[in-house]
Amino acid sequence: MCSSVFQNQHQLDLHNSQEHEVKMKKIKRRSIFKISEEGRSFLGSGSHKRGNLEKDVMCHLCSRKFSSKLALQRHMGIHSGMKPYECQDCDYKTRLKASLIQHKRIHTGEKPFKCSQCLYASIDASSLRRHSRTHSNEKPYQCQQCPYSCIQKKSLDLHVRRHHTGEVFACNLCRYSSPDKQLLHRHLKKRHENVVQ
Hints:
The chain has about 200 residues and is an alpha+beta fold. Helix content is about 45%, strand content about 10%. The chain is globular, with a radius of gyration of 20 Å.
């Protein structure tokens, strides 16, 4: 495809989805995304374009380091809050074109990432990688305080909050709390649907 070199599989996957798959999909389906006026102005400025690769490029707002100017530029969207790519089917907005393409698969039902050992299929490569660990019994996330290990970081974070730190996410409308942020969101929708939007 191209001569780019990457330090790990994640960077390669990200590059392929954003630089190659996106261009092919854009040619096939021009109307897959729409861009807000704010986003159009950002893209027109050229500030999103790939710079020369450098080691240890640092964000001046939070001091996080990146291996390229491109990675830093993507990160800067977190601070600006700008989400120029909008879904035409719902109110989803995102900073990255590749994220919108992945999101659109929720509406189309397309699941191009298929497991070679069972019928599992997903909308993104990371979900397939996580699923593949169920076949290999690989559990790369290890608790530093006990023998617990698991296949995804989210599960480890929940385990640590539940069993070691006691950190919880509390409802500000009642006395409910949970170590699982998703359970708090579910609670808010179910118990306080008239208050929470």
